[in-house]
Amino acid sequence: MKLKDRVAVVTGAGRNIGEAVAQLFAAQGAKVAVVDLDRARGERTAAAINSAGGSAAAFVTDVSKASEVAALVKGVVERFGRIDILVNNVAVSDNKSILEITEEDWDRVMNVTLKSQFLMSKQVAHQMIAQGGGGNILNVGSTSGWQGRRRAIAYSAAKGAIANFTRALAVQLAPHRIRVNAIVPNKIGSPVGREEFDPTRPVENMLQRPGQPDEAAKAILFLVSDDSSFIIGENLFVDGGTMAMDHTS
Known about the structure:
This protein has helices at residues 16-27, 39-51, 66-80, 103-131, 153-173, 213-224, and strands at residues 7-11, 31-36, 55-60, 85-88, 135-140, 178-185, 235-238. By secondary structure, the protein is of the alpha/beta class. It is globular.
């Protein structure tokens, strides 16, 4: 088991990539804090893990609010004793152009998608440093942060920021033996913020199919495990080759 006795916090763990990460981590021996604003989703994921013989607890938290993040970290430590891994997965999208988006739309996307990663990383880093032993932080980006889109201006901006936030965080936390990396997915599972999965959703990649949540989860497992011990500050594309393609023809 690659994560035996480690404690992991996964945000947005009630569905899609976050749910797959929580389940895979538990199967690999981790104790998992399943964080989601939707109580039913979070409790469903935690219950599935526990019924399969793993160890998980659900935490209902608005990770865009500093007070709730501080309470979450305290609660996880009280429950499991420490925190070894953080996966910043939660996000929302605007799906609007600059001509349509409102200030409220912009702020919500930035707070949930970007600010949450700052708040969670700050609080968890303090905990990791205090307890000693280092740790791993994994941010979930998006190919939307690496190219222009006709829609989703705020989401594209937030995900673009995450790419360099990951690098800066890696530089600053490396002296504390905390490795920081990110994955950059494209059209994996259901769309951001939506429950349903549409198998006919158009994709443009080398594999000519949508990605599956467990494929992202396996990449995340690699980056938070000792298998990637010499990888730090990296944005790993898990996109079926989308960004390596020529889209002009």
